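agent> fetching stored inputs for the nicotinamide-adenine-dinucleotide docking request
agent> found them:
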Amino acid sequence: MGKESRTLDGKTILVTGGAGFIGSNFIHFLLAKYPGIRIVNLDKLTYAGNLDNLSDVACDIRYEFIRGDIRDRELVRGILDHVQGVFHFAAETHVDRSILDAGEFVMTDVHGTYVLLEAVRQAPHVEFFLHVSTDEVYGSRDEGFFKETAPLNPSSPYSASKVGADRLAYAYHMTYGTPVMIVRPSNNYGPYQYPEKFIPLFITNALEDRPLPLYGKGANVRDWLHVEDNCRAIELVARRGALGQTYNIGANDERRNIEVARRIVKHLGKPRELIKFVPDRLGHDRRYAVDCRKIKALGWRCEVEFEDGLERTVHWYVQNESWWRKIKEKSAEYKAFYEAQYKDWK
Ligand code: NAD
Ligand code: TYD
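agent> prediction call returned; pasting tokens
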């Protein structure tokens, strides 16, 4: 499908998980692009949800925030009576947390998606349900690229939960004709990413002159995608994607973790000695890599080069110290998690 098939302007759109990293970037993106859009942000505000990410749009009459759980059937049904499209971002997302305890991942990522799909099935005005999956559903591979048709082979409780949600969304399309589309983006980076994920953790630790805990030998490879490129891709799929189809999204610009860590300390003028090799993550996927020809055929191109995107991201965390300090200092849970995880090398 190469032509325009849907429009978002003039529509009311539900964004789940809009107070998180990608969701809040996506809301900014939609409000900037569509003067006539209305957005409902349904977010439970877990530890990862942060209304500071959206303080600049809080008073925009096109934007409404509802604090609630995607598993709340009545709430979700009520909202879906008034919307024409859904972007489903809400999830538990951190692999290390899923290794410590998989329960919330199953309950939110799988069961939460089920509740939404059931409600969409009974909501006649919803034209699309865009499910945000991940490239991690394919699992790891040493060389080559996964096409959308590749078997799914997840290896962490996080990615296994995302597979459950991804295939459930597909099954609702096949079984009930629910207007599902699925995207599988690679690792995102950029502003407003919670500082437990690799890039913001390393930037903020370096700014605090604390160690940067690099797992294993730092040889694992990720395909870093700037969140702006991801937002453009997701919005493009909503407009031009075909119902029932899945689209990989990746920059196809792979970097070893050690390289990323070194670039971060270099940008900040900090010593390389801050980088500390620590015991590897359990079941650590070596490499993710997706074939992006399908989304490129819709007209998408990655526009942010990694060197430039990383420099801008480092700059954003330097400029927005109060944003991340508040999270790091006020979250007792974050500290407990951090300390429990790294007790072996501290
Ligand atoms: P995030 O952890 O920053 O944000 C998740 C948001 O979901 C938070 O605001 C949280 O409060 C909300 N949430 C969690 N449980 C909820 C519930 N039960 N009801 C309502 N809201 C709930 O996540 P992110 O990095 O922005 O990722 C967004 C989506 O993109 C996720 O589905 C994730 O799997 C997917 N994804 C992320 C990446 C990445 O690199 N960050 C890459 C590929 C795919
Ligand atoms: P992460 O940001 O958790 O994303 P994902 O595991 O979903 O890809 O981690 C990115 C890479 O960085 C991954 O290979 C694990 C590694 N990593 C570290 O080396 N140290 C850390 O403290 C973290 C959080 C991640």
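agent> quick read of the result: The longest strand covers residues 38-43.
agent> awaiting further instructions
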